[in-house]
Amino acid sequence: MAVVNTDIQGQVMLIQLNRPERMNALGLELRTEMFAAFTEFNDNPDLEVAVFTGTGRAFCAGDDMKEVLERGAPGIESHPLTNPYNDWQS
């Protein structure tokens, strides 16, 4: 099951976070798929608007702290997917 769903309707891309059991917390898999969606949006000149939604009762709970603790915090800040947003900010 994808943790990020996308749908294109005309010039609009819907990006839906899909981890309702974790309140759409930002784990590594979700960040990876979200970055792929951002890249797809950025690379498609026909798209003008991106709309973000989340499934379940929360849009996004923030970082998945359970996953951070399981993976171990040392070095996580240097992982290339920890802050992918710098690549597409404009």
Helix content: 25-40%
The number of domains: 1
CATH class: Alpha Beta
Main sheet summary: 3 strands, mixed
DSSP strand content: 15-25%
The strand line-up of the biggest sheet is: 1-2-3
**Number of DSSP-assigned strands:** 3
**Rg over CA atoms:** 14 Å
Secondary-structure-based class equals alpha+beta
Supply the CATH architecture. Answer: Alpha-Beta Complex
Output mean pLDDT: 86
Strand-and-helix sequence, N→C?
A: EEHEH
CATH T-level topology: 2-enoyl-CoA Hydratase, Chain A, domain 1
The CATH superfamily is identified as 2-enoyl-CoA Hydratase, Chain A, domain 1
Terminal Cα span: 31 Å
Structure explained in plain terms:
The protein is an alpha+beta fold and 90 residues long. The chain has a single domain, classed as 2-enoyl-CoA Hydratase, Chain A, domain 1 (Alpha-Beta Complex). It is 26% helix and 20% strand. The protein has two helices and three strands, in the order ββαβα. The chain has a three-stranded mixed sheet with strand order 1-2-3, with helices on one face. A hairpin with a 2-residue loop joins strand 1 and strand 2. The chain is elongated and about 40 Å long.
